[in-house]
Design a protein that fits this description.
Blueprint lengths: L2 H14 L5 H15 L2 H8 L2 H10 L10 H6 L36 E5 L5 E3 L1 H5 L4 E9 L3 E11 H7 L8 E6 L4 E5 H4 L5 E6 L2 E2 L9 E3 L12 E7 L21
Parallel strand pairs: 1-10
Antiparallel strand pairs: 1-2, 3-4, 4-7, 5-6, 5-10, 7-8, 7-9
Helix pairs in contact: 1-2
The structure holds ligand MTE and molybdenum atom.
Length: 257
């Protein structure tokens, strides 16, 4: 069972079961995880080991990320200084994709926003392009040792999230991508005014390689947090056993700049 299946199971349970049964859900998910990963049988042999591995992946939340979502949407957060247009480095942004590049049809494309929200939405590119366009010139930093000053144009993630009317105690947001990539962010970073869902790069429509039709762009996180080809965002109260494509292979989760 991969991340996608796990996520869809989680999503279904969330839709079906009322919030007050969340504790039950957590136990159910935990049991499913143990079964799926084969840890339930190994756990019998190894005593606490299986569980501690699980807790290692699920248990900790790192930060006191408990600010209410309304505060995050409406309070101004510290802005990162941007660069002048003359600083843009058109050739410096290297294509970095872990697998095959998906080709999404921008006409039939829909961005879903669901999870712990009062108004799940499914948005076309036309819907999205009716929201205010923000442009910013920031530095993209990849852990593999390169960086690039890029201009991104798109909509503020906070505007998209607000459309879905998140429940006030959501703390994390997952991004699902068409190539199988996935990421999770803390809400404060996701709702930062310079965190965009971009559809333009350096004044041009985003290319397929760079994540068309929609990708994340933000000056506050490392490159691997900036998912390309985003097709779904899911708001959650707790992190799932999966945190991100690279994070699940040992990279740092918060990945702030
Ligand atoms: N869907 C998806 N998003 C992704 C990746 C990926 O492999 N798949 N790679 C990440 C990494 S490591 C980086 S540095 C940037 C690179 O963006 P670019 O290819 O547009 O330069 O995308 C990030 N987003
Ligand atoms: Mo990267």
């Amino acid at each position: 069972m991969g991340f996608q299946d796990w996520w869809h199971t989680y999503d279904k349970i969330n839709l079906l079961v009322n919030r007050k049964y969340m504790n039950y859900n957590q136990r159910l998910l935990r049991r499913q995880f143990l079964q799926v990963s084969g840890l339930s049988s190994i756990g019998l042999l190894l005593g606490g080991c299986g569980l501690s591995l699980f807790e290692d992946k699920v248990g900790k939340t790192f930060e006191p990320l408990n600010q209410r979502v309304e505060t995050l949407i409406f309070n101004p957060q510290k802005l990162i200084p941007e660069f002048p247009a003359s600083a843009i480095q058109p050739e410096a942004l290297l294509i970095n994709t872990f697998g095959d590049t998906p080709e999404l049809d921008p006409v039939t494309f829909r961005l879903k926003i669901n999870g712990e929200v009062n108004n799940p939405v499914s948005l076309s590119m036309i819907d999205i392009q009716q929201l205010p366009l923000t442009s910013m010139i920031i530095r993209h930093v990849c852990v593999e040792g390169w960086a690039a000053i890029v201009q991104w144009g798109g909509v503020r993630l906070r505007d998209l999230v607000a459309l879905a009317q998140p429940k006030s105690n959501v703390r994390y947001i997952y991004f699902e991508s068409a190539d199988g990539y996935y990421e999770s962010w803390d809400m404060a970073s996701a709702l930062h005014p310079q965190t965009l869902m971009a559809y333009q790069k350096n004044g041009q429509p985003l290319s397929i390689d760079n994540g068309a039709p929609l990708r994340l762009a933000s000056p506050i996180k490392l490159g691997y947090k900036q998912s390309k080809w985003v097709t779904r965002m899911m708001l959650v109260k707790e992190l799932l056993p999966y945190r991100g494509y690279w994070e699940d292979q040992g990279y740092e989760w918060f990945a702030g700049l």
